[in-house]
Every structure is written in structure tokens, then in C-alpha cells.
Fold:
Amino acid sequence: MSFRVGVDKIRSVKVQGATNVAIFGLKLFVSEAEKLKTNNANIFLNKLSKVKTVLINARANEPMLRNVLELFYKSIYDKARVKDLKQRLVSSQKTFLEQLKNDFEKIAFNGADLIKNGDVVFTHCHSSSVMRVFKQASKKTDFSVVCTETRPLFQGRKTAKELVSMGIETKMVVDSHAFSEIKDCNKIFLGADVLSGEGFVNKVGSYNVAYAAKVFKKILYVCSHTLKYSPKIASIEQRSPSEVWKNPPKSLIIENPSFEIIPWKFVKRVVSERSVKKYGGLL
Ligand code: RUB
Structure:
């Protein structure tokens, strides 16, 4: 796959969810580094810095991708031979992906402990972290899930398909029904794109879900790797109106934000690879 095609897959949400974007972006970064044709370390690092910027900008609300790429870039920022820098990147990638796999197992175990027999659990969009929790929980617990369809890109269908294939009883509702549906659920699990002092960022519609949790006194958990931490939240990604309506009347204004910032006061605990804690005690 060419670099351009890969970046386009991230931009167009063909690669979906913060964790998948970070892993896919890292692989693209390392493979692009391997292809760079220069023996001069300065030129190599300069070119690689541009590659990093293009990838980070492909989806501005994904600090996990940004944090991972910055980490990798810093780790090779020295005057070694280009050949050695490339080798270092490849071997660090292998170690990092193994570590990430272990971390997500921890998230799955930490989250699964919170789901009890008979629970009706609500989720929104598609979060690989939340899906891992559900998969792990389904091994020992009998619970059901309600998910939204998640307009306009219908990531909820991916969630529903995976849940059904795991043998978990699943119901899907249209997004506008989320509020009343939450009244009849007892726990809510959401993923996150950003963890920040201001709150967490997740798919548009998550604020409604969090607010309903508060109104109906239901428990909201956020499942996330701590690599999604960002001291500041970049402005929220605005996507094309055509995702909402292909041929709208010309003068119609359509707003299509991808995400929302949800204050921590709505969240009971953050389920991370480190712990199950309130955001304040997480980092
Ligand atoms: C996906 C989304 C997910 C988070 C967390 O949005 O909001 O809840 O990215 O996902 P999009 P994960 O479909 O626009 O990428 O737990 O897999 O990191």
C-alpha cells in the first residue's frame, strides 16, 4: 500500500477508532521510513518528520497516534547511521505492538470484572477497547448489550456485528433513542479518543449518552489506553456535510462534528491498562 492510500484510509475513517488508527499509522510511519532513500541522518530525520506531520494531521483528534509517533521519532533522534536508525524503528515497533497487546488484555480484564450477570450494558459507536471488555466478560458472564447505529458513518453496525458473532445478546437502536433506552440499562461503556483535564473526547452523541447516565443515575465507564492523554484538546474534527446528506438543498447549513468533549463529572471510572480509577488518579 502506498503512503498516500494509507493516509487516505485514516482520513476517510476506513481505519476506524483511536487504537486502530494509532497502530495503522505507526506501521505506515515505519514502512515509509524504511523506504526513504538517503544515507544522511539529517535528511532522513527531516523527511521522517514530514511523514509524521502528515500522519498526525490525517485525524487531528487522535493523540494516541500523535503520542506514539512522537515517541518513536524521539527514540531515533540522533546521528547514528541511517541503516541503524531504520533497524531500531523496526525492532521498537515489534516490541511496542507486543506491549500494546498485553495492555489491551489488561483493559479487557479490568473492564470485564465490572460486568455482572443480568447486566444490560449500553455502548455507542465502535471502540475496540470496549469490545475487548465485552468479549472477555462474555466468557464468564451472562449480560446483554444495547448499541446505537452511530450516524452518519454507522460504526454501530460494526459493534453489533462483532457482538452477535461473540454470541452476546444485542439490540441496536437509532441514535435519537439513546436517551430513553439508557433508562432501562444499568451500565454504560464508552471508548475515548482523547483523555484530557477538560474531559474525554469521544464520538458525537457521547455527550447525550453521558447526560442520560447522570439523569437516570447509571454508571458510566470509559475504557481507554493512557496513551490517549493530551494536555490540550485540538479543535474538534469537522467532517464533510456529504456524510450526512449527499444532495441537500444548496443553502442548507449542515454541521458534522465527529466528536464531543464530555466533562469528567459524568464518568464513574476510567478503565485503563493501569487501573480502574477516577480520571484524577489515573496518570
Ligand atoms: C471512534 C470512536 C471510539 C474511540 C475509541 O470514532 O469514537 O470510541 O476512537 O476507540 P471513529 P478504541 O469511528 O470516528 O474513529 O477503543 O478502538 O481506541
Observations:
- The radius of gyration is 20 Å.
- The beta strands are 120-123, 144-148, 169-173, 187-190, 194-196, 199-203, 219-223, 259-262, 269-271, 276-277.
